[in-house]
Design brief:
The complex is a heterodimer of chains A (about 325) and B (about 325). Chain A has 16 helices and three strands. With about 325 residues, chain A is mainly α. Chain A has a three-stranded antiparallel beta sheet with strand order 2-1-3. In chain A, strand 1 and strand 2 form a beta hairpin. In chain A, helix 7 runs parallel beside helix 10, helix 7 packs parallel to helix 11 and helix 7 packs across helix 13. The model of chain A has no long low-confidence stretch (mean pLDDT about 80). In chain B, about 80% of the residues lie in helices and about 0% in strands. Chain B has 13 helices and no strands. Chain B is flat, with a radius of gyration of 24 Å. Classes of the chains: A mainly alpha (about 325), B mainly alpha (about 325). At the A-B interface, helix 8, helix 9, helix 14, helix 15 and helix 16 of A face helix 1, helix 6, helix 7, helix 10 and helix 11 of B.
Chain lengths: ~325, ~325
């Protein structure tokens, strides 16, 4: 909390913090913002609260469009479409086939099967940010462990771990992921996050190793050792907490990189399986529908979303770096 | 210096082993083997498949297979492609120059432009330099293949400008080749350019604030010389480091770029081979790319040793 307030005090970081809060908010509350079912509805003598979350059996096959004429009352979601709702279920009839451009019904347009781009963006934020966050979490965990042990132990352990680090750095990441993900033959979320996390820890490890090398010569470590602290206690209780600042900065930049990586992998067909929306998947679709050269909204909005996220995260990283370097 | 070089070369051996082990492990994590695909698709008889498996050495235990594969790799023999039976080394030899050309140009442009641009941004505080700084920050966050798609929409779509070619590398003419390279190289250059420019700028700002610069100015050395000789020389070390670390990123990015622009380089080869479970080709491509990266990082390290005498002295002691 104190950290958040300190960040808020940094005026330069404020727009980034606001943007990220907005994006995180839409990701968390995606189901309340864009859904095929309403927030609350009274229909057939029954009141449903938050059917968009609970998805009651009584409303199966219904949408906000079909409910609104027959319901006694209804509170709809701001965007009355689910992310995977095609024209088959929105029941829209219009001149010409989709993709349709932005208008009062679909604020950001639809894709070539009539799915609402805004709804897909919001639900895609959830998938993309989830992947990015957990990728970095795993990467930081592995990186701190490897870097901490490598830096503190020195000698043969350090030599071996440094070679492993070099192999992971040298191996072109995208090649590795193409091979790994195609071998895993799965397109669900967790294997993807694991594969990404287990390949992206090298930056953190290198950084932590350098920090630990610096820290372990200091007196407080000597004092801890003199009091009989075990190596693992020294690493986990004394060294790693002191290296957290720079790690946090790197991790923040890592989130931005992971968002970009997810889009790239989606583009190569290695991301989450369609029809699940992720930002990368949306952009990939924009590329596929290059045959509709007029459909700029398919490319512009997801791209802008990604760019905005990466920019804000990087700005946040810069702000954190200022804090850490400033000795706060 | 010789000791430093020898030490660096010695350290490459375990790294090379690690790379090959990783490649092999990844390719063999797959359930079943390539022949299973034959079995499914061609309805080959089980006895035949077993015979083929034995003939290709696929029935040996994995460690044995690894050692056999490694000993062939060292002789640059990556086996034959499972798809068209051509030697993998031949396919790689066709693809590598294309990737090297595109990536090499991108790295060249990125670093060639980043140094003067970074110096400019560090020394001038004008509206233009501020706008440029902001623009560089923005472009860094934009996914390359998205930019590639937008550029294609604008420059290659028959409904828009239609001035630049969309796919491939042309039919062999030099002018045609250059024309085809404009968009891919541009897309591959700008993220590295943005990153390196920021590095040069902040390193220059740090250097210009130091006492030796003040001293140089006090001695009446012209400002140009202070900036371009005294300060810049002291700012270039982190840039050289960045050169080493940016190579894996550029090569990784080239996979996407090659796919968008249909350039038949290493990335596209690996990607297509993965789709067809052509493991010898995948393993060959991954190994070659990793070794190429390793060698270029070695070159950077050696350059580092030349530029900064402290490094080779420290390492030797």
């Amino acid at each position: 909390m104190r950290g958040l307030r300190a960040l808020w005090a940094d005026r330069a970081a404020r727009p980034a913090v606001l943007t990220l809060a907005l994006l995180l908010g839409s990701a968390v509350f995606a189901d309340l913002l864009a859904s095929d079912l309403p927030l609350a509805v009274r229909v057939d003598g029954q009141t449903h609260l938050l059917p968009c979350l609970t998805r009651p059996a009584a409303l199966r096959g219904r949408t906000q469009a079909t409910l609104s004429p027959i319901a006694e009352w209804m509170i709809g979601t701001p965007i009355p479409y689910g992310p995977e709702q095609t024209i088959a279920t929105t029941g829209e009839v219009r001149d010409g086939a989709p993709p349709w451009g932005p208008d009062e019904r679909h604020w950001l347009g639809t894709d070539d099967v009539g799915r609402d781009v805004f709804a897909r963006l919001i639900h895609g934020a959830r998938v993309s940010l989830f992947i990015a966050f957990f990728t970095v979490l795993i990467a930081v965990g592995v990186g701190m462990l490897v870097g901490g042990v490598s830096g503190y132990a020195g000698g043969a352990t350090d030599a071996v771990l440094s070679r492993v680090l070099e192999v992971m750095t040298t191996f072109p990441l995208v090649f590795f992921l193409i091979a790994l993900l195609s071998v895993l033959r799965t397109q669900s979320l967790w294997p993807l996050v694991l594969a990404l996390g287990l390949t992206r820890w090298t930056d953190v490890a290198r950084l932590v190793r350098a920090e630990v090398l610096k820290l372990k010569t200091l007196d407080f470590v000597l004092a801890a050792r003199a009091m009989g602290a075990s190596p693992s206690r020294i690493i986990f209780r004394h060294l790693l907490p002191n290296a957290l600042g720079p790690v946090l900065v790197t991790a923040t930049f890592g989130v931005a990189a992971a968002v970009l990586l997810e889009t790239g992998l989606s583009f190569l067909g290695l991301g989450v399986a369609p029809p699940t929306a992720s930002w990368g998947e949306l952009l990939t679709q924009a590329h596929r529908t290059l045959v509709h050269p007029g459909a700029w909204w398919l490319a512009v909005f997801p791209g802008a979303c990604i760019a905005l996220t990466v920019l804000s995260v990087n700005a946040l990283g810069e702000a954190l770096r200022r804090k850490v370097d400033g000795g706060a | 210096m010789r000791r430093y070089l020898l030490r660096r070369l010695g350290l490459m051996a375990p790294t090379f082993l690690g790379i090959t082990l990783l490649t092999f492990a990844v390719a063999h994590l797959a359930p079943g083997d390539p022949l299973q695909l034959d079995e499914e698709n061609l309805g080959a008889a089980r006895a035949d498949v077993a015979k083929l498996r034995a003939a290709r050495g696929l029935d040996a235990p994995l460690p044995v297979q690894y050692v056999r594969w490694l000993s062939r790799v060292i002789r640059l023999d990556f086996g034959r492609s499972l798809i068209d039976q051509r030697p993998v080394s031949e396919k790689l030899a066709e693809a590598l120059p294309r990737t090297a050309l595109v990536s090499g140009l991108a790295v060249l442009f990125a670093f060639g432009l980043a140094v003067p641009l970074g110096v400019f941004l560090a020394t001038r505080r004008t509206l233009l330099s501020r706008a440029l700084s902001a623009a560089l920050t923005v472009v860094w966050g934009v996914p390359t293949f998205w930019v590639a798609v937008l550029l294609l929409l604008v420059f290659s779509s028959p409904r828009a400008l239609d001035v630049l070619p969309m796919q491939g590398l042309g039919d062999g003419g030099l002018v045609d080749l250059a024309w085809h390279l404009v968009l891919p190289v541009l897309c591959l250059t700008y993220p590295t350019l943005a990153l390196v420019t920021r590095q040069v700028r902040s390193a220059m700002q740090d250097a210009l604030a130091q006492d030796f610069v003040k001293a140089a100015r006090a001695r009446g050395i012209p400002e140009r010389r202070v900036v371009w000789r005294h300060a810049l020389r002291n700012s270039l070390l982190p840039v050289v480091t960045l050169l080493g670390f940016s190579l894996p990123h550029v090569l990784g990015g080239s996979v996407l770029i090659e796919r968008v622009f249909g350039i038949p380089g290493m990335g596209l080869l690996a990607f297509d081979s993965v789709g067809t479970r052509d493991y010898p080709t995948v393993m060959g491509a991954a190994t070659v790319m990793a070794v190429a990266t390793m060698l270029s990082m070695l070159a950077v390290d050696v350059a580092y040793g030349f530029i900064d005498p402290r490094i080779r002295v420290e390492e030797a002691s």
